[in-house]
Amino acid sequence: MRQSSLVVMANRLPIDDSVAPDGACEWRRSPGGLVSALHPLLKHTPATWIGWAGGTGPAPALPDVDGVRLHTVPLTPEDFRDHYEGFANATLWPLYHDAVEQPEHHRRWWEAYQRVNRRFAEAAAEVAEPGGVAWVQDYHLQLVPALLRELRPDLRIGFFLHVPFPPPELFMQLPRRAELLRGMLGADLVGFQRAQAAHNFAQLVAKVFGVPATDRQIEVDGRTVRVGAFPVSIDTAEMAALATRPDVVARADQLRKDLGDPEHVILSVDRMDYTKGIEHRLKAYSELIASGHVKVRDTVMVQVAVPSRERVGQYQILRDRVEREVGRINGEFGRVGEPAIHYLTQPFDRAELAALYRMADVMAVTPLRDGMNLVAKEYVAARVDDSGALLLSEFAGAAAEMPEAYLVNPHDLEGLKQGLLAALQADPADAAARMRAMRAHLHRYDIRSWVRSYLSTLDGTGSVPHELTTD
Ligand code: ADP
Ligand code: G6P
Q1: Residue 463 above 80 pLDDT?
Q2: How far apart are CA 467 and CA 471, in angstroms?
Q3: Ligand 1 centroid distance, CA of 364 (Å)
Q4: Which is nearest to 350 in space by CA: 241, 275, 253?
Q5: Whose CA is nearest to atom 3 of ligand 2?
């Protein structure tokens, strides 16, 4: 077994097995923020990525991609149902997102979660070089740090949570709360998107275990566990370069023509997830049309919503409701050849996404709760001429970093409508000043600075930069 000095573990590998029916393999990203964040890092670092390839058969042997070894962990149909769809996405995901949908609790799911976490820890123990770094990602694998420490105490172990970490009163609902915290405490560094999440974690650890815990470090079992906020970012330069490529510029122009050259284009790009606030946004848009504030011929909305976690009941219900609402709005307000909403559920490649970002005057990113939201950052990075307006939910992690966006509370329908109108009618000079400030921020705090800041803190050579720790 070949070993690596950096081992990254994430439930999902950066490619879908459907991409490689003939065994050929390319860096085709699976949609989702975690993969988008880590993909640029691993392209330039010799590392092994341990993850699941998307099916429920035996683990396929995937070739190295751009120097990165892909080590697949198999999931059985029961693991898929009880670990991935169950504990990860029907217990933890809703609970961590303010319980906007009701979390479910089943003892069988917890068994599967433990089993799959153990499998990941064993895989990492095999492929990590002596004294190497193991970096565990996200809520699917919260038990891995402690399990891996037992197997390989020589490793430096990091854990990063890409999603929000809830306040104690919500987390305390979890029947296995102590075990989940213990799992995370196996890491040398526990990283979150926002300082508030680090604070919630420290409070919980102090409450549940009665050990000394601050928002920066926790003493447990004679070890020090560091804690911090490391807001994840994007490859800003890559997105800006893509958005200026002549074929992408031409494609953006073409897209706009295909939409009938409207005065305003509003764009939203989401995974089909109940945390993204899609229904609230559609309601706001439809009320603005009904009241005459928005005219369908002048303004067009493009909603991209790529299906996600499709067998989980809450996701099926959401998709049905969204599709019914899009149908209703188009039926009521559209005309032949002039729909009010263009609705697309396909995955797109990076160039097509960049063309969409480039084409849109207003980007509406209005999640009810979101760890970061990289789509908001991608849009800003693509606006190389400082035009365009970002409508952004206060409840996305990105809002703490980009206060120059048109910020809204998506639960407040009137506020959402006002925000959308403000973004549509923005004074160009004011909008450009806002966009310039946000682009400057992303230029400085890109994905490389995130990785540097996390890994240097993990190996003890750096510390959490102060400006990244405040909410
Ligand atoms: P989440 O992590 O909840 O999925 P983010 O906004 O942080 O949300 O990340 C979503 C990522 O998935 C972004 O990098 C975005 O470009 C990508 N993405 C979203 N929709 C699509 C799509 N239809 N095709 C390809 N990539 C997509
Ligand atoms: C979010 C999560 C990731 C996950 C992604 C896509 O970004 O934080 O861990 O990979 O959504 O979801 P999926 O269930 O398709 O992996």
Answers
A1: no
A2: 9
A3: 14
A4: 241
A5: 34
Interatomic CA distance for residues 247 and 243, integer angstroms: 9
Distance 149 CA to ligand 1 centre (A): 32
Give phi and psi for 8, each to the nearest 5. -105, 135
Residue 137 vs residues 40, 98, 189, 461: alpha-carbon distances, Å: 15, 20, 12, 21
pLDDT at 58: 87
Report the atom number in ligand 2 closest to the C-alpha of 308.
Answer: 15
- Residue 106: active-site member: no
297 Cα to the center of ligand 2, angstroms: 36
Largest Cα separation within the chain, whole Å, is: 70
What pLDDT digit, counting tens, does each position of 93-110 carry?
Answer: 999 999 999 999 999 999
Q: Is 271 in the pocket of ligand 1 (CB under 6 A)?
A: yes
Active site residue 370: yes
**C-beta of 307 in contact with ligand 1 (< 6 A):** no
Q: Which of 97, 162, 199, 441 is catalytic?
A: 162
Residue 458 CB less than 6 A away from ligand 1 = no
Angstrom distance (rounded) from CA 185 to CA 195: 17
pTM: 0.95
